[in-house]
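Notebook B, p. 112. Complex prediction, attempt 2.
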Amino acid sequence: MRETAAERWARRVVLTLLAIFVLVPLYVMVSSALKPLKDVQNAFTWWPRRPTLQAFVDMWSTVPLGRYLVNSLVVSSVAAVFSVTVAIFAAFAVSRYRFRGRGLFSVTVLSTQMFPGILFLLPLFLIYVNLGNATGIQLYASRTGLIITYLTFSLPFSIWMLVGYFDSIPRGLDEAAQVDGAGPLRTLFQVVLPAAVPGVIAVTVYAFMTAWGEVLFASVMTNESSRTLAVGLQGYSTQFNVYWNQVMAASLVVSLPVVAGFLALQRYFVAGLTAGAVK
Amino acid sequence: MATSTTPRDVAAPDRPPGAGASTKAPSRRPRRTLLPYLLLAPAIVLELAIHVVPMLVGAWMSLLELTQFHIRDWSTAPFVGLDNYRMVLDFDSAAGAELLQSFWVTVVYTVASVGISWVLGTAAAVLLQRPFRGRGILRALFLTPYALPVYTAVITWSFLFQRDTGLVNHVLVDQLHLFGDRPFWLIGENSFAALLIVSVWRSWPFAFLCVMAGLQNIPGDLYEAAAMDGAGFWRRLRSVTLPMLRPVNLVLLLVLFLWTFNDFNTPYVLFGGSAPDQADLISIHIYRSSFKTWDFGSGSAMSVALLLFLLVVTAGYLLITNRRRNDA
Amino acid sequence: MFAAAALAAASLTACGDSDGSSAGSAKTLTYWASNQGASLEADKQTLQPELDKFEKQTGIKVNVEVVPWSDLLNRLLAAATSGQGPDVVNIGNTWSASLQATGAMVEFDDATLDKVGGKDRFVPAALAAAGAPGKPPAAVPLYSLGYALYYNKKAFADAGIASPPTTWEQLAETGRKLTGGGKWGLAVEGANPSENAHHAFTFGQQYGGEWFDAAGKPTFDTPQNVAAVKRYVDLMATDKIVNPSNAEYAQNQSVSDFANGKAAMLLWQAAGANLKSQNMAPDAYGIAPVPFLAAPPAGGKKVNSMVAGINLAVFKHTKNKDAALEFVKFMTSDAEQVALNKTYGSLPAVTTVANDAAFSAPEQKVLQQTLATTAAPLPQVPDESTFETLVGTAIKELFADAAGGKPVTEESVRQKLTQAQQQMR
């Protein structure tokens, strides 16, 4: 199966074009972060004429970026962990059991993906407020409320991906464990989960990303102390000015760890999808 | 948490390959056991509390005249039955016509975005199948837009699209001299193209990821066999790759469709809450109708209508693809 | 359990008149301030010392959160809906009647006003912009603002222009002289619905138009309003003294353009503090009243600014109404009015310090003059915030047309305004 010369050139051209498409905004993010505000407000230049790191200094005092970053990290990680835990149990049930309502559950879970967020934003907000008043658990304007909300956003796709992954794990393994006297939960934790690590990682990453980027609910359901990056970064556009260079600098700083983490885990992500969603 | 720990309930029927969560009723009679329900309970409770119940409340809102006069105490809001629906779905009126326009914009946007994303993702995945120097770097690069938080990605694009200070016009006008006049990207006719570009930039890596994963499941000897028959690149693509990717694509296209159709973040960040007519996606339209004009009744009615549409489309899609699969 | 509780909460009390308040102890208030300065953090640093002073005086602790304008109305609406949120808030004064309609705000009847210093303490025009006419105000004025014409002195001198324009015709003429070589006569905030709506109101007044009739019904597409909106958009469309790029400005880029010398004139409220932050010295620009029509049509009013400003409102759901009113009294006290308005370049909302030396700069003099003689409040009707959104967005689209080279005709303006009106309930 040799590659012809024409094929090779076609491949190079297409991949180069795609790489440029992806790279340009990333490059502009970096180069603009290195420009002073005046230069960003004037005609575009590819190269920063007067490179400065000032934006990386100023960005911490224009908005409380550190606090937003902590909030986003806490909310996204906790939501991801809980989402995956809940999804593991649900996926195990769907994958390994035949029970009444199994089809209904699958269909309902899938259909929640269709709900326009705008439809249940206000009702959910009111439920949180009233639940808070009734029980004293503050959900509105707290990280807890945001965590609960976000973990359900990623839940449907996570369950569905994990069901696929669990299905791909031979049942012979389960049975062998049962012969050894393992109960269902031990089977899950000692047999299925270890074999499903890539799937679990894939789902965790997905859940984290979902929570990390959400804007709409965060804009209504947070206050200053629980605000996440997705809305917090809007603070660089103020009553006075849009601090483009600081927006870019802050975007860069908050994106780097996530991108690095994602790229480090991408192997698992692909493997998780291979056996999971994609079969 | 388990009440029953006996192993006998663990059913292990051999299911046909390709069957997923959507498998129809199991052939074996369900045994009565609580365990699966207990395992599902957290998921069910959460979905009910965060999705289903608020959605039902939202549906109820659509039957009320819920404006600023009544928002504080819903019991004073007049029950208007289907009036909100009549109003927003009256396509002869200005409000109805705008909703219809917004609907079509969203349909075209979704189809275009999903289509282009899929083509780009498949192309990149297929072209990266063969090992070569730099493949790992390219793969990481292509995945980066997916890993970037929405806000940072979209705000960067909005900076690129600025008329006077953006890169896009700098390249098109100042360097390539393609236009005499600097075009606008964030207002007017081009805003649709701008929105589409941003959307594709954000979602094609996901298609790339899924297709790449799908390709790893295709046994190499299929290609060998095709090559022996003298099949060229396109023949191999058509007769081996695409058919083998079918299950991936079925899922991928549906998921991308739903995400793109309901996408709020991209237009909201790109245009800041009031999108130009040409790029007035339905999610933004509903947001404006509810939150900016404080008419939550009609906003909810629009949402419910939208939800019904998506349900019908999805059900139709699943029916057709399942039937085809069964025919095959 | 959770689901059942949520269900019960949703169906039984979702709409109820909740008495919940975020304030924990009886001596703590939550205050949402609007973004008046260079950044959220800068505002916080401005306010915190004053709040500390208040705590020292009264023992009442105030937790302040500076809310960006993009979020403020949504957050207020959420608070009004749920009875959960702050005790005291800043609101754009044009929203007063809209928020008043929700019934979530404490009414400042005479007795309540007496608790914060009495009705006569406040500038009457500013107090009139704090709620629907004939009803007790839903807020009290905090910072007073108005529009003025800012012009670049050097650009004027270079073009040989002796004095700022006083009529729109002169402004167009002046603008043409100043336009060229990459510079423009005037900068506008074409994609910002609120700014557009404010100008639509002022032009409307000058043409004798009203946006709502006496019964509070919208009258967007009257010939006067069509002429008014067209006049405004024509600054770009036919006079061509506005850079078409301004059609996509929604984040105060027009102020930056003025500060950077890209535009020679700007219509703005209290731009001084912002210009200073962008390194434009106060002696580099002059301030004049916003122009009038040279030949006003019959019914045209001598109005060249809205009564702009920020009001202070108290939520009914507060558990500490007395403390909240105490705080309102503090914020509208002479000392605070001088200190805060001086920082923001706005004018005091109380009569007692109007002549304080802090407000004798040319910018404040022009503002004072305008507010005292030729300013009118935006219609104080419940649908006001909807008017700003719909009409402001219609004008945004007209600017987009003008910038894209499409003709802006009386017909196209009327069509947009009719469309906006039909979306009012």
